[in-house]
């Protein structure tokens, strides 16, 4: 896996993935940015959410669950000192579908957390406290 990050101006950078996709990262105005993109730590949090969401959806689809929507809400706490690393992250999966089985959703969330989500497992190994919950909504 590869990526390139190129400085644009001030606190703005353009990141490009090895697969050719780009995203703008920028800082807040009080740190030389223009607020034109996500912050780098927000990218980490979104990456974790994407990794876990991908796992949960893949597992539910393989279990033939009729999912019509899946949203993952993430909340994070950071250390007050420098470096302001993540200390806690909570993921809440809101899965909407037809006749979803609670046991299947619970299993998907657990498998993602314990076995498949590389981002989550890596952050936990670094000392981040990660918690999960889910909510099922009938379509």
From TrEMBL:
<protein>
    <submittedName>
        <fullName>OsmC family protein</fullName>
    </submittedName>
</protein>
<dbReference type="InterPro" id="IPR015946">
    <property type="entry name" value="KH_dom-like_a/b"/>
</dbReference>
<dbReference type="InterPro" id="IPR003718">
    <property type="entry name" value="OsmC/Ohr_fam"/>
</dbReference>
<dbReference type="InterPro" id="IPR036102">
    <property type="entry name" value="OsmC/Ohrsf"/>
</dbReference>
<dbReference type="Pfam" id="PF02566">
    <property type="entry name" value="OsmC"/>
</dbReference>
